[in-house]
Amino acid sequence: MIRLYASEMSGNAHKVRMALAFLGFAWDERATDAAARQSDAFRAINPMAQIPAYVEDDFVLRDSQAILAFLAARHRPGEWDGHSPEERGAIMVWLSHSANEIFNGPALLRAERLFGWSVDTARAQAVTDRILPIVEAHLAARDWLVGDRLTIADLAASPYLALAPDGGIDLEQWPAIRDWTRRIAALPDFPAMPGWPAEGGA
Ligand SMILES: N[C@@H](CCC(=O)N[C@@H](CS)C(=O)NCC(=O)O)C(=O)O
Description:
The chain is α+β, with helices and mostly antiparallel strands. It is 53% helix and 9% strand. The protein has helices at 11-23, 34-37, 40-45, 64-75, 85-115, 121-140, 152-162, 175-185, and strands at 2-6, 27-31, 53-56, 59-62. β3 (53-56) and β4 (59-62) form a beta hairpin.
């Protein structure tokens, strides 16, 4: 049985939740709040004391991007992680943006507002202002970040962009991003996430 250490409102956890749901898997989700993350038991699973963490039998993996790459390689090779070196390179660009600019921009603005994290707001806003036009221009010309299908690039990049309104970003000003997040939410088996705009919704 797959065990996923997560929390309901974590966009990073939702990346993995979406992958498992789209794969049609069942998993045992362990709600892991800030106190539980600091426990010795959880630090033995993830010394970074962060969610998500993935456990399957004696295999343990941390980091949402790494877990997505693992799931793709094992269960959707090529389709989810690139059919060619060129596609794999393009997917890596978006995994990297997900862990860097999308997290340090929109995700931190959201965490400041929703969870009271101490954030350098000006820096998070500047990172947001730099990455959003790049994603918008990219998606204005295509339905998916890489190729003509969902890949782990979309799974990694979408949660903190879909949830950007929680951080005060109006997605109506970014229609290609908004439509792409709705496209993902309309996929069969999409797991609900509080704050993720759905088809026709806000
Ligand atoms: N690079 C990691 C970042 C994970 C992360 O920042 N998780 C947050 C919750 S969304 C967390 O556990 N933060 C607690 C901490 O950093 O102490 C990933 O993509 O999984």
